[in-house]
Predict the structure.
Amino acid sequence: MSRKEFTQVRRDPYSLVVVLFLPLVQILLLGYGARLDANHIPVYVLDQEGSQDSQALLKAFQASPYFDVIKAVDNYHALVRAIDADQCKLGIVIPWNFSERLDDAGRTSVQAIVDGTDDNSAQLAEGYAQAVVATYANNVQLDWFARHGLSQQATIPLSVDYRTWFNEDLESKNFIIPGTVALVMALMGALLSSLTIAREWERGTMEQLIATPVTALEIMVGKLVPYLGIGLADAILCAVFAVGWFGVPFRGGLGAFFLATTLFLIVILGIGYMISVATKSQLGASQYALLVTLLPTSMLSGFAFPIDQMPAPIRAITYLVYSRYYVSALKRIFLSSAGISDLVPEVVAMIIYALVIGFFATRAFHKSLQ
Amino acid sequence: MFDRIWCMIVKEFLQLRRDKYARFRLLVPPIIQMLVYGYAATFDVNRVPIAVMDFDHSQESRDLLSHFTFTGRFEVAKVLSNEQQLKSLIGRSDIPMALKIEPGFAELLRKGQTAHLQVIVDGTNSNTALIAVGYVNQIADQFSQDYATYRLEQMTPALAAVVPQISLEQRPWYNPDLNSQWFFVPGVIGSITLMMVVTLTAFAIVREREIGTLEQVMVTPIRPFEFILGKTIPFFVVGLADVILVAVVGTLWFQVPFRGNVLVLLLGVVLFLLSTLNVGLLISTLSSTQQQAFVLGFFFLNPAFTLSGFAFPITSMPKAMRMITYVDPLRYFLLILRGTFLKGVGLDILWPQMVALALLTSVLMLISVARFHKSID
């Protein structure tokens, strides 16, 4: 049974494309395309004062690696238009009385106009802009203290020392790429089993199979084992690419990686199998498979969107989303040095899931025979 | 000619009406996706649970901690008495951040030296960590300012009032509360439409070919371009209906504002639908089975979605990827959607997007019609 399935995959060039190319395309695409870091944020500046102070502040923005000051405009209207047309995300406006107010009242301000459409980039940009202005303000203060003979004031009261664990440079590729292994697995597993099994139904070869003395359980296992092998091979391919090409660290145990991946594949393949038994058409099977596997894996697993920020009912649902456990396991296997013993809750949850799915998958087939 | 096209259209709609699953597929997945994206897609960083190790137990250290809880960005979830406990907490991803105040913190402050706050961050989720670090910096700056002013007031109250202070006034436009839903809901309209229209068109034609009914249609007096029109007009209508459905649900349910001109949006929708129809048509001419159509569709849809700026900013992509985004119809449509919904801009701003979509559509149409002629000969 399994050997037949392997041969079929090998002879079908499209299946081969799916098996080999799809994971590669997926990981390259997400590795390069799915970046959340905000570097080189395009900035327009409007310096209404044009003094030494205002120019010094703008220099500080230019020096920041997070900002690209691409243009200095001379009127407010041009700035508004640039933000409307998505030419810049941030506009820095220095008012005409910037240094006058600083000298007279000791208090002055600059404006940061942020395009809030993309709230995440906007938040990052605000944080970086705040840091640039704070540093500048500090230097101005230190100067002032020195000039007024208050050298004992010339220290910053509080400084923050950061120690970052697991993803030391806070690069989004290290956050996103381990999770893409789960995305690729979800996609592959669901597509392979649903498309190939549904095809047997559509072409009527499934009835032939049923007529042979093979039992329902044997059909299921025989059908799915080859895809489990292919899935594992794809997982290795993805991991090798993640580490070798994108430089994502792999610090955990290989055993944990294979255990978690195998369990996840069993769940995914089981779901794909059930869908194809239920719909018996390729189009229907593939659409449902994507809806049931890819959508929750990309949205509700913590792959990109943090689960703890979702509303409570959605958070409750994520406990039912099997990918949640796999994505969490993957991230910890790659970034922190997690072994099987550190992943007990995830592994147990996936085992329970695999058993339940396996049980229903065998039953689903029985029913459809009659 | 119009009679023949009309017959095709009627036939397609009859087919659609009789197909119970097709109707289900047209209605339910878009709404599910809308709800999932609306509720789950958020990059917000609020109520971050933090662990606290205060080894100084002073007035000053407590004051610093209250600066943290005051903002609502952080919640003290655990108070720890030693650093060993921290390792397992952060290791299990229970808590993304911890604050540590060493003994002698207050003394350093009082002596006029720099005191240190240690922040331990779980960097796994780099995005949350970066935003949280931004908040920590702001809070620390505020604390520094407050303390410096307080210190100065003690010594030379006259000068304290005139210490130079420069602040940054932040004005987030179009989305003042930086609500993720406002960003994602208009985007979902684009991504759902793309997915629906491309797969529907591609599959419908390939299925006729696979079942063999395409030949039957071809021996009738209908001409190829009439067939194409008859096939695509129903999907155009279906696509339009889906856009309206998703847009109405999105604005009413999630309260996303619509500030622009409906006609401008409509023009964008029509151009976008035409380009996606042509992509579907092209895929159908390149494949002889539904499975092939599916694989090809996937190879188009997946990059089109990821590189559109739907969730990941295009400016952060490497240059080569940024170049690819220029041939992505969804990229332009998203700018039109967000422009009309949130920014309320009109054609004077959005014309480059419209022109780009029109160009893409015409190129795609030329290729797909040429290919279609060939594939039936």
Summary: The mean pLDDT of chain B is 85. The longest helix of chain B spans residues 180-211. Chain B has two domains: 2-41+178-376, 48-160. The first strand of chain B starts at residue 48 and ends at 54.
